[in-house]
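DM from R.C. (forwarded with permission)

"hey, sorry to bug you on a friday — could you get me a structure for this? deadline for the figure draft is monday and I only need the backbone to look sensible"
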Amino acid sequence: MENIARQFRLQINQEKTKYMIVERKISLKKNKIGQLMIKNYKFERVENFKYLGVILNEDNNNQIDLQERIKNANKTYFMLHKFSKNKNISKKLKLRLKNTIIDKTLTYASETCTLTDIDRKQLDIFERKVYSRILGPVYDNEKGNWRILSNKEIYASVKKPTIIESIKLNR
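My reply, with the result:
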């Protein structure tokens, strides 16, 4: 290992170097060896780590990463909150901001992950929440009051693929 590192003029830093075992077999997961010894180096075992903005874990489960992306997209939405509440900015521009900034934060590196039914539901809920805040309530002439758009009405007025459909299209 040292010889190969030297060939590329690299130094091994045991403080920064960690290792993780991704395995379906329960026997390796039960064996939680804290350190791996290679010659004079000790490397710490981790259960998950962040690589290029994606959280990887030893179960190969992307639930933690999805939660992190939803949280980051929510932060991004609230950074743009002043724009979404501003009556002088058109809904078309607000939707464009959502599509270009919030959706990109939400779908970063999602081409590689497998979405479960729970993941799809969480993404749909987040997307509808943002859409309903951008589109706002509508006045119901029959009942004479304001109401929130239904899910079908939201998607009909947006005329854009859902976030799930966008992820599938990008694969």
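R.C.: lifesaver. The chain has eight helices and seven strands.
me: no worries. Residues 59-169 form one domain.
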